[in-house]
Design goal:
- The chain is of the alpha+beta class and 245 residues long.
- The protein has one domain.
- It has 8 helices and 9 strands.
- A hairpin with a 2-residue loop joins strand 7 and strand 8.
- Helix 4 packs antiparallel against helix 5, helix 5 packs across helix 6 and helix 6 packs across helix 7.
- It is globular and about 60 Å long.
- The chain starts with 9 loop residues before the first strand and ends in a 5-residue tail after the last helix.
- This is Immunity protein 35 domain-containing protein.
- It comes from Paractinoplanes bogorensis.
């Protein structure tokens, strides 16, 4: 189903979003380890365990597709290797020879992979002609673990809170505490994102895509997608909300 995973048991995971306990299972890694996750998310322990088992199934690796502008798709894959499981976040396009990596969550973390402005833009620009998750709130929550941005705006709290309420993820009295956990999660440091000067690759000039200063990010000082043309680069920049319209 996805290039690079042809020999792996990857399955479409979008149907899992409707399961009780899904969002608690998906987001619990972003909370402090000593949190009582069922209480924080207002879910039943059995529902949480069932959803977590589905996400971590070694025989059926769930993949969540988030199609956005210009034919691009952000993908989240639970790579459930028996001894080295992890979660991969990347961007694909039918015209690319290889994926653009965003982040990996495993024993050797790589990230962050998204700035706040990119996360919000992708969430709000679904390509409904392509399969995957189209609800803006669910899209934001699926990509939230890849975020790491020290300049996250003040209204980010309200944006994430609305997403949680829309997905009926959290009891009202826990919303403020959960949002604080999700925006200050332990996975990736809050990176500084900047727009680099356009650079020349052969006869073509590339620009318009942010880079970050995080030491372990796939996006530290390099293009998000390698081996793409200037036209493809510009299309991606517009799809991320950072390139000229």
């Amino acid at each position: 189903m996805i290039d690079g995973y042809e020999d792996d048991p990857v399955v479409a995971g979008e149907d899992l979003l409707d399961r009780p306990g899904f969002w608690a299972a998906y987001l619990m890694g972003m909370c402090e380890r000593d949190e009582n996750v069922p209480d924080l998310f207002g879910v039943d322990n059995d529902d949480l365990d069932t959803a977590a088992d589905a996400l971590m199934d070694e025989e059926a690796w769930p993949a969540f597709r988030i199609p956005f502008g210009g034919g691009h798709t952000a993908v989240v894959v639970f790579a459930n290797f028996s001894e080295d499981a992890g979660i991969d976040y990347f961007v694909t396009h039918a015209d690319w020879d290889r994926r653009g990596f965003l982040a990996t969550i495993d024993g050797h973390f790589a990230g962050p992979g998204l700035a706040w402005r990119e996360l919000v833009h992708i969430a709000r620009t679904p390509d409904r002609s392509s399969p995957g998750v189209h609800d803006p709130h669910a899209r934001l929550l699926l990509l939230l673990p890849a975020l790491g941005d020290r300049d996250t705006p003040a209204d980010a709290v309200d944006v994430v809170a609305r997403a949680l309420r829309s997905a009926q993820v959290v009891p009202e009295h826990e919303t403020e505490r959960l949002v604080a956990r999700l925006l200050d999660h332990p996975m990736f440091a809050a990176a500084r994102w900047t727009m680099p000067e356009p650079h020349r690759d052969g006869d073509e000039v590339f620009g318009g895509i942010l880079v970050c200063d995080a030491e372990h990010s796939p996006r530290r000082g390099i293009r998000l997608a390698q081996g793409i043309t200037r036209e493809q680069n510009d299309r991606l920049a517009r799809a991320l909300g950072t390139g000229p319209g």
